[in-house]
Amino acid sequence: MSFADHPERHEFVEFIEQLADAARSFLSGRHESGRFETKEDASPVTEFDRGVEGALRAMIRTRYPHHGIIGEEFHAENPDAEFTWIMDPIDGTKSFVVGIPVFTTLIALCHRGRPVIGLIDASSTDDRWIGVDGLPTRHNGRTVRTSGRTRLDGSTVSWSNPEVVLEEHRAGREALNRRTAWRVFGAAAYGVGRLASGAVDLAVESGTVGPYDICPFVPIIEGAGGVVTDGFGGPITTTTRLTCVAAATRELHAEALRVLNG
């Protein structure tokens, strides 16, 4: 049985929105947090990251005790389960710490390792994108599409973190930047949402991401007509790390991969 025919699909979609509502309620009115700790990978973490993830994990355990959970802040639980929930409680913690409102909450449901529902929730700007395998992507309840751009020349690209890029992508990053019309830096998952809505043409992550950073993008971008893979053209699953390239069309995605890996 494909996920499109799964009898609980509608229930799962309702539940992922309940999770996002809970995260938004926790973060409501909190547009900055000057207090943070530095993790082993040099990234920051706040009490709000841990608080949101803890609350969402508790909701999942109560509703679906046999499902797996993978999150950024705590150890994985039953990650080889048929259904696994993946979350990044605050994607863009650096922005959150200093009060720049482009941070988001990311949640995905994966079926046998493949993302089938994805959600990006930007509580500070009241934006929510949700994608479901086999259905059109919605932004605040309205169906959205990518820009449809097929050529790299003249396109726009959102780089999540310009400070970090894999060694094998360093030369490609500069080539990609030369070919595109202009770049947006530091938007993180918010940039991917804007790609789904047609505002930018490409979104690239290279060097610092885990599955919780990128699994939600798959149903969102594909449901809006775009293409998303890891930085080398492979599928994004619960084990994907380090890279992600999303594009408005298959043609643009293929050209961006060639340049990035050239």
UniProtKB/TrEMBL annotation:
Full protein name: Inositol monophosphatase family protein
Pfam family, one: Inositol_P
Domain of life, per lineage: Bacteria
Organism of this sequence: Microbacterium capsulatum
